[in-house]
Specification:
Elements (H helix, E strand, L loop, with lengths): L2 H12 L6 E6 L2 H13 L4 H8 E7 L7 H9 L11 H9 L12 H4 L10 E10 L11 E9 L6 E5 L5 E3 L2 E3 L7 E3 L11 E9 L9 H20 L7 E6 L2 E2 H4 L10 E11 L5 E3 L7 E9 L1 H9 L15
Parallel strand pairs: 1-2
Antiparallel strand pairs: 3-7, 3-8, 3-14, 4-5, 4-9, 6-7, 9-10, 9-11, 10-12, 12-13, 12-14
Helix pairs in contact: 2-3, 4-5
Length: about 325
Amino acid sequence: DGYFDKLMGIVESLDRRGTGVVLLAHSMGNKTVAYFLQYVSRRPGGLAWLEKHIYSWIAAGAPHLGAAQAFRATLLGDKFGLDAFVTDSEAIVFARSLSASPWLFPLGAQAERPFLMLRRGGLLEVRNPSAHVPHCNLSSSRNSVMLSVEVWWGEGADSECLTSKSSTDFAGGVAHFDPENNFFRFGGGPPELPKNATITVIVKEKGIKDDSSTNPIERLGKGIVAGIQLLDEAAHGRKGMGVPKANTDSVVLSQALQGRRHADGFVDVRLPITSVRGFSFRSRQQDAASHDYVTLQVRWLDYRALRQEWLGSKDFSPPARRRGGA
């Protein structure tokens, strides 16, 4: 499209004193500058033109060797922090529609001989969630259920919260979820599981159906309260568009992991609902006779078990050097 020819003209017009100009580029703009310099250098008299008109090039945040994030986004998608609004499939379609992404794929030795950096931290995995919640004040069985799983790592550490996709069906007060789209990984844990680390689940309702009331004023009030609750959830880092309806007690993870263990290390965990939110900001204690609960399968991998799982070895020591010749 003649862009580089036009750019050469702009550079010449700016170089009024004949001292050469300074090219300043940021991020992927540096890839464009590199392409421009190569383009000019291969033209007849191009090297002389560069010597005359280009004094220097300042590269700010230049991905000269590419960026692993670009490859990961193209492969797996990237929601850019909009997890509450963008689905996994939409994130993949969006990332793969960016025609400039291949410009940022890794180059050189890091692309030819990839390496893995493994943080000395543990990993908590959660799968197969379900919720038995017939007494949790959900407005309609035509709505869907979401679960926010929150893990607290102990004193002085941050908590992590991940929210499920909407339930695939919700009938008879029991919500089922697609296991493939609801596999949680909490990767911010310490190397070993803290004794006081806890797990809590918040039950949420997503949808506008309401079978519990026909009063328009009451419905309006519920809508206002729900909107404020959504903002409060977002402020606490709990993503998802579901309105909080109930939550389980905070259960110590080390105790929860004492249950029945599967062959792959996952443990069946049942968390009883201990408080229910009604048409207010307050929560009330759940009636013990209702027996509402959430079930999960949980697995903890410390950093050595994680290395064994991913790399096939627990050894962190560097390979021994050979003595003498090769």
